[in-house]
TrEMBL record:
Residues 47-140 form the SAC domain. It is an enzyme of class 3 (hydrolase). This is Phosphatidylinositol-3-phosphatase SAC1. One of its GO terms (cellular component) is endoplasmic reticulum. Its EC number is 3.1.3.64. Pfam families: Syja_N (PF02383).
Amino acid sequence: HITQEKFYVEACDDGADDVLAIDRVSTEVTLTVKKDVPPSAVTRPIYGILGTIRLVAGTYLIVITKKKKVGEIFSHAIWKATDFDILSYKKTMLHLTDIQLQDNKVFLSMLSHVLSVDGFYFSTTYDLTHTLQRLANTSPEFQEMSLLER
């Protein structure tokens, strides 16, 4: 969900009420609940957050807008991110000079090119950041941690 003040990322899991709120001015990230999302917010589906990047114009949020299932590991779906959106935290570019606007445009083009290259994979239920060998040698406590905590 997008408003003038915040980005709200709502989990689609059954029973999930938590919403990630990202302040577009302070860049502060907090956890809130669905009822706090204004009804006027523009809503659209995303499949994940790739991250943030700071360019000349300010901070941008990179989100995955399309995905393709490419396989499974131990019954865990593995997805390839196939399309992205780059969302500006800033509501306007009026604070930039013409040269800064041009530089920002070039950096956005470079970023779009990098995102168009194959190789962005993810899983919402399996740890792709560690090898199977390393996972086999981790402690039971590590295995019980959520992917986010790891």
